[in-house]
Amino acid sequence: MASKATGKNGLQPSAPLPPAMAELQSQSTEKVLEEMNRLPLFMTTLDETDGDGNENPGLEALKALAYEGTRAEIAQNFREQGNECARAKQWTDAKEFYDKAIAALRGPQQAPEPDAEQQIVEELDPEVEAKKEKEIEEACYINRALCNLEKKNYGSCIRDCASTLRVNPRNVKALYRSGSACLALDKLAEAVDACNHGLDLDPTNTSLKSLSSKITTRQAYIASVEKARQEREQKAASEKATLKLALKSRGVLARSTDQAPDMEDAAIKLAQPLDPSSELTFPVLLLYPAHSQTDFIKAFSEKEKLELHLEYIFPLPWDEDHEYTVDNVETYMETAAGGLIKAGKKMALGTILGSGKVEVTDGLVRISVLPKSRATGWIEEFKRRKPKN
Predict the structure, then answer these.
(1) Average per-residue pLDDT in the chain?
(2) Are 111 and 70 in contact (CB under 8 A)?
(3) Distance CA 309, CA 75 (A)
(4) Predicted pLDDT at 361
(5) Coil, strand or helix at 229
(6) Which residues pair with 335 in a beta bridge?
(7) DSSP secondary-structure letter at 315?
(8) Which of 6, 77, 209, 334 has a CA that sits 20 to 30 A from residue 175's CA?
(9) What are the structural domain ranges in the chain?
(10) Peptide bond into 315 cis (omega under 30)
(11) Average pLDDT over residues 184-204
(12) CATH fold of 269-385, please?
């Protein structure tokens, strides 16, 4: 009695392998899986080679099938694949398939291959094919519009909706998606137009009704924001005019330059912004030119005297010789003509500014403070620096 063949693992095969697969018996499991992955039916990862660095014939043949047939057949194939991706919310992949479907509709028309058993090729009916292509084109444009809407490519969505409506002006989905994209871009007039047109075609459409409500809400919000902006601008203009009137009525000279310092929220202000007779306050910069130091007073009332502020500012932390005391300093301001006047420490700031001799530049009052012993020398130096007219 003949003995039975035994495999490498000691087990007896139930039947011999077919000749085409006999060589697999001597290969490792990894090698068998690698070979199977080159077959389109068993692929788990994309392998486009045949193992020798060339093209995978099986895969190339499968890919070529996608472009066989009439324009409508090719486009329909891509459309269905796009629909599958869209159902899985794979918007990027779905869009690519719709791109290919639309491109196929623009390609040359191909007659179907003759059947193996029937060698006579039936002629295409142009009207039937045109109708199929129109239906597929409309579906691909409107579905691609959905992909773009989900991907927030609002401009592309609007263009796809326009293409859909050129094919079918009564496509309600195109009007809804176009309106949604316009709303996202705050193109409210266009959103209203698309929504209203859609409701004219389908008055009971709940999606369009919901969109209309969203548009109305957004319009109300934008209107309220615009109203608030206008009120702020009007208030600011009124306050600016009132401040100008207040300065003029007090005889205070003021001018602006293109080199205004950044003072954050410090500014010339009225206690009651719309009442020119209310108390004025000024930002004041105290300069100590003999020591290249400064102090800043954010709100100096027109009714206050300079000595009031000097009393709490002195002594100065850097004044090692104790030269700066209220009684031992003199204060000066530059005139509008470029000279100097002595500003009395016991005079109210409003009185000094209302004299018509000094001017407030860029909303800031500047006062130079010097020890009496240094004042004469500083004044002479100031005169030498000033150009003569």
Answers:
(1) 87
(2) yes
(3) 85
(4) 95
(5) helix
(6) 358
(7) S
(8) 77
(9) 28-65, 269-385
(10) yes
(11) 98
(12) Ubiquitin-like (UB roll) (3.10.20)
